């Protein structure tokens, strides 16, 4: 079945007046977030504190980044999976190109990235990037800060993506269907749509994000609900997107919330080191496992344990 829009996809507005802990608006917001995460594994976010100007500026700067010679792009490499540059290739897609910037709210890591790409280190890129990464991190704290069991320290991995328009009249894969391996992801685009979400088995909807909205995606590790998504390209325009991934700091152990485990709700997964799972998910053996099944393959307890 192709993409269709019959299902009502949750859109949640984060108004400043609702952000004070304890007030009614805050409780209503928490309930909506929880329901959307549990039902869809994702939702559209409208949040004015992530500046639309900085975001627009970033998309402008990404067009400069794409023009950088390939020898410099290749310097954006990392021992960690998904943290470096990937050019158009058969394994991902001939339409795809993506850069990675780890620890993106840290000015020094932005500077190191920019110095690899531009001889003058592009201070404007660094400043805009720093503002955007910091605002996104604040938003993540807002979301995860209210779930005691996921109060983990994160670093933000930013990925800048370009998807080329497919040949005229074609509907082509820009990024294969997958679930995200980090704890969560925030995605925005330049209003050229392409991101699709599998809302039910085989039923995909295409999101049309506005200049002030984001898509929030829950990743595998929290076992809330991870959602299959992909990028499909059609039309004449290239698409630019920025994804901010919440990556737990080194040594973080993802635990099952013990208070939720009893005879009726046995513990299904062992506690695990996030980075071990992350490395596993990008390893050769995991390539043969469906993306949504990788956590199960890595961490399932059989038989489950009840307290
Ligand atoms: O570019 C997008 O819209 C989605 C990117 C994505 O899902 C990912 O990189 O995990
Ligand atoms: Fe993703």
UniProtKB/TrEMBL annotation:
Cross-referenced InterPro entries: DIOX_N, IPNS-like_FE2OG_OXY, IPNS-like_sf, Iron_ascorbate_oxido_reductase, Oxoglu/Fe-dep_dioxygenase_dom
Superkingdom of source: Eukaryota
PROSITE patterns (alphabetical): FE2OG_OXY
Keywords: Iron, Metal-binding, Oxidoreductase
Keyword Oxidoreductase applies: yes
GO molecular function terms noted in the UniProt entry: metal ion binding; oxidoreductase activity
A Pfam family that the UniProt record links to this protein: DIOX_N
Domain Fe2OG dioxygenase: 146-248
Family: Belongs to the iron/ascorbate-dependent oxidoreductase family.
Name of the molecule in the record: Fe2OG dioxygenase domain-containing protein
Originating organism: Gossypium mustelinum (Cotton)
């Amino acid at each position: 079945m192709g993409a269709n829009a019959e299902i009502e996809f949750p859109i949640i507005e984060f108004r400043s007046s609702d952000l004070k802990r304890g007030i009614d608006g805050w409780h209503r917001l928490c309930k909506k977030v929880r329901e959307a995460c549990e039902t869809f594994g994702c939702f559209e976010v409208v949040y004015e504190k992530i500046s639309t100007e900085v975001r627009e500026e970033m998309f402008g700067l990404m067009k400069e980044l794409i023009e950088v010679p390939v020898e410099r792009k290749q310097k954006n490499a990392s021992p960690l999976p998904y943290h470096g540059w990937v050019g158009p290739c058969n394994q991902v897609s001939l339409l795809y190109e993506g850069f990675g910037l780890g620890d993106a709210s840290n000015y020094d890591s932005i500077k190191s990235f920019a110095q690899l790409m531009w001889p003058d280190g592009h201070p404007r890129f660094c400043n805009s990037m720093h503002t955007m990464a910091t605002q996104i991190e604040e938003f993540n704290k807002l979301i995860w800060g209210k779930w005691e069991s996921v109060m983990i320290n994160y670093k933000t991995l930013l990925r800048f993506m370009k998807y080329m328009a497919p040949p005229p009249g074609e509907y082509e894969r820009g990024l294969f269907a997958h679930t995200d391996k980090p704890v969560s992801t925030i995605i925005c685009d330049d209003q050229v749509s392409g991101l699709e979400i599998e809302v039910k088995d085989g039923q995909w909807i295409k999101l049309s994000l506005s200049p002030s909205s984001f898509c929030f995606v829950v990743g595998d590790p929290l076992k809330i609900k991870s959602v299959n998504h992909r990028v499909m390209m059609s039309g004449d325009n290239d698409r630019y997107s920025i994804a901010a991934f919440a990556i737990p700091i080194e040594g973080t152990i993802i635990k099952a919330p013990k208070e939720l485990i009893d005879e009726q709700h046995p513990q299904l997964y062992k506690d695990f080191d996030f980075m071990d799972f992350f490395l596993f998910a990008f390893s050769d053996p995991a390539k043969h496992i469906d993306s949504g099944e990788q956590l199960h393959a890595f961490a399932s307890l059989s038989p489950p344990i009840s307290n």
